[in-house]
Amino acid sequence: MSVLEVGDPAPGFSLPTDGNGRISLSDLKGNMVVLYFYPKDDTPGCTKEAIAFTHLKEEFDAYNVKIIGVSKDTPQKHDKFKTKHNLDVTLASDEAGSMIENYGVWVEKNMYGRKYMGIERATFLIGSSGKILKIWRKVRVKDHAESVLESVKEFV
User: Following DSSP, what letter does each residue of 2-40 receive, concatenated?
Assistant: First the structure.
């Protein structure tokens, strides 16, 4: 898989979500989409990121932007995560990892000298036409949701 770049068509997907739902990119045509990938439900950084997007959801809604978080956690884990932290973003489950691979965010990581494969914290802003408008890789959680919202404003 080649690395995705700004201007590329966003790879399509159809995934189960929290609340026993399902979401696909084709269903979101006509909307901007914030697609953020995160390693695991209920870990400190992932929780802060989800809470930050939830706090700004009304502002994203005002621009007709859909926010979707993606990890390999099950929809049932997503439900518990959302309830525990009162989250108001859609969480999609890619247990098989095919979408995560298609977006190039399944990467080798290194923690305390141990190498392993995992999800890179990354965000893709997808335009209403389905093309990638902006990409953030190796995301630092602090102020990230605000940065994404500022970018949305540049494209409306």
Answer: PPP-TTSBPPP-EEEEGGGEEEEGGGGTTSEEEEEE-S-
